[in-house]
Amino acid sequence: MSSPTFTFDVGVIGGCGHVGLPLALLLASKKRVLIYDINENAVAQVQAGVMPFFEEGAEKLLAAGLANDSLVCSTDPSALASCRIIVLIVGTPVDEHLNPSFEAIPRALERCLPFFNDEQVLVLRSTVYPGTSAKVQRWLRERGLNMSVTFCPERVAQGYSVREFAELPQIVSSFDERGAQAVRALFGSMNDDLVVMEPMEAELAKLLANAWRYIQFATVNQFYMIAEHHGLDFNRILQGSRHNYPRLAGIPGPGFAAGPCLFKDTMQLAAFSQNQFFLGHAAMLVNEGLPAFVVEQLAKKVPIADKTVGVLGMGFKAESDDGRSSLSYKLKKILNLRAARVLCTDPYVKDDSLVSLEEVLAEADALVIGTPHKAYKQLRIRPEVVVMDVWNILG
Ligand SMILES: NC(=O)c1ccc[n+]([C@@H]2O[C@H](COP(=O)([O-])OP(=O)(O)OC[C@H]3O[C@@H](n4cnc5c(N)ncnc54)[C@H](O)[C@@H]3O)[C@@H](O)[C@H]2O)c1
User: Fold this and answer.
1) Which CATH number fits domain 207-388: 2.30.29.30, 3.40.50.720, 3.20.20.150, 3.30.70.890?
2) pLDDT digits (tens, 9 = 90+) for 330-343
3) Which of 44, 101, 252, 373 keeps 20 to 30 A from 272, CA to CA?
């Protein structure tokens, strides 16, 4: 059988996603890249040179990729047949019982299967339950495919991939030497700091990193709740404790620890430890409990049952237009049960239920800062309005 002809260096399955697209754009600055995604709207937008979401520095890369024809975007998986390396980076959520689900990856691979061949290398880049890469390799072999399987986790902070990709070491792993060479060459062409691991080590390394961050946020959030419960100003304590004291220099500030990754990856690690990951579960209780604590504290200051409460910021983190798994929405739900009226606003998140900042500032009797967007630093708030500012963005 003759060897296949590869017109693309890389094909990215899920290439219009929050981390798939920046990766595809970065690769397209050096290589010929095909984006394959089932989201027709996102594909049409990207093909037209429009970023579907905020990503620092991505617009320029997109324009350049389209202009020099190094980037092609499609909803048709057949073009994957002409990609030497296939990167898969679809979402890997936990299920309704907070257990990892193996379904997302085979579901994404199923449609592409007729266009794969043995000469290709598959790079799994979604965050996965340990052992998934081995399972994917078995799944492919059972379907008669001998392509090399590798796992190279994505570790960037969403919104800043372009900058961070070059700054962060890239973890690479493979089950065979052909795959190892391919991923060393692929990621090594963009970043010379490579860390080689075994696939299961790399899978676990990614989960540990996210669980570590989640636990750090939970620790400081619990400190916040302890201090505030006793009527003390936690941010004064934090600032004073950090002052010229190196051992606390890295302690984060309190705030809603949310988003599409930290919680679900901590739960994946909990499942991997047969639910003996007590710190992870405790972190979930603390972080997920913070919105209710904030509402409780607010209710002590204002009789919210007959008041309008405004929520400023619905994105899961500052300057983000991504409302996925944002705790501001949990806050909104709790407030809907407790307050007379809830008005929410955000300068970036697209959601028809949101109102303008002006309307919230004019109507609300109390305000909660949901997301610490820079725009909220200089607000003109009526003096009689009570403000709950976990993040201490107002100072
Ligand atoms: N968002 C982050 O900050 C971040 C950081 C590091 C790692 N990760 C991991 O990366 C993975 C993707 O996360 P995301 O936030 O980019 O998700 P996302 O939902 O933004 O992107 C996934 C993309 O895959 C596409 N897709 C879904 N099913 C498909 C299929 N069958 N065929 C082709 N395309 C398909 C979707 O249309 C979407 O564009 C997850 O495993 C996540 O844990 C995310």
Assistant:
1) 3.40.50.720
2) 999 999 999 999 99
3) 252
What is the pairing mode between strands 386-388 and 366-369?
A: parallel
The DSSP-derived string for 41-91 is HHHHHHHTT--SS--TTHHHHHHHHHHTT-EEEES-GGGGGGEEEEEE---
Asked whether the beta carbons of 330 and 338 are under 8 A apart, the reply is: no
Q: Which residue puts its alpha carbon closest to atom 33 of ligand 1?
A: 37
Query: Residue 2: pLDDT band by 50, 70, 90 thresholds?
Result: low
Residue of minimum CA distance from atom 27 in ligand 1: 90
* Token code pair at residue 204: 């676990």
pLDDT tens digits for range 145-191? 999 999 999 999 999 999 999 899 999 999 999 999 999 999 999 99
Which amino acid type is present at position 325?
S
Contact 197, 151 (CB under 8 A): no
Pocket (CB within 6 angstroms of ligand 1): 13-14, 16-20, 36-39, 42, 89-92, 107-108, 126-127, 154, 156, 158, 260-261
Q: Which of 13, 32, 4 is nearest to 118 (CA)?
A: 4
C-beta separation of 254 from 237 below 8 A: no
Distance separating alpha carbons of residues 329 and 374, to the nearest angstrom: 19
Q: How does residue 395 score in pLDDT terms, banded at 50, 70 and 90?
A: confident
Q: What pLDDT does 1 receive?
A: 54
| Fold type of domain 8-199 | Rossmann fold (3.40.50)
